[in-house]
Amino acid sequence: MPALMIVQMQQDFVSPDGSACVAGALPSVSVIATALHHARRQGWLVIHVHRQPPERPTQPKPQSHRPTACIETSWGASPVPELQPKADEMVIHKPRGSAFERTELASHLSDHPNKELVICGTPLPTCLRSTVIDALQRNHPVTLLSDGCSARSDALIDANLQEMAQRGVRCISVNDWLEWLGHDARAEQGKSVH
């Protein structure tokens, strides 16, 4: 049974009022909500990965002009309402790009070696890409929900999806993924009848 991983679908990245809004993140919410509904209905492990920046010095670095996103307990750090974690779902707080870097995710997944991870969220060229690569290095098969990912431009999305596919990642839309799961489930049922 796969696990669904939702990365950084927090107000600062999704809302137009967020400090680090990613183009395309808001329209992907309904797509990701569809995948989340399916995963919950199937009893899958659901992993919510939230950005939580490390403690910062009181004086910002002179070269840093970007506002800090997802400051702990702020509105911007909260997940969008449609993708709010349930009490029994895993929430990983990450300080860096990959969901595996300086988090307990790998130890949680150690009980599930080679578990397929179905990944979606934002932004694709950085946090999703590094999470996918780290998952592959840990021998987890990965499905990337292509319309559940966002970036600053369609060109960035296309280039990253092409790279991921070349690495052996299944890149598929949510509707095609649900259809594929249905065919796969029917094939399994057919095998058990014979």
TrEMBL record:
Domain (Isochorismatase-like): residue spans on this chain: 3-175
Pfam families per record: Isochorismatase (PF00857)
Entry keywords, A to Z: Hydrolase
UniProt cross-references to PANTHER family, sorted A to Z: PEROXYUREIDOACRYLATE/UREIDOACRYLATE AMIDOHYDROLASE-RELATED (PTHR43540)
Name of this protein: Isochorismatase-like domain-containing protein
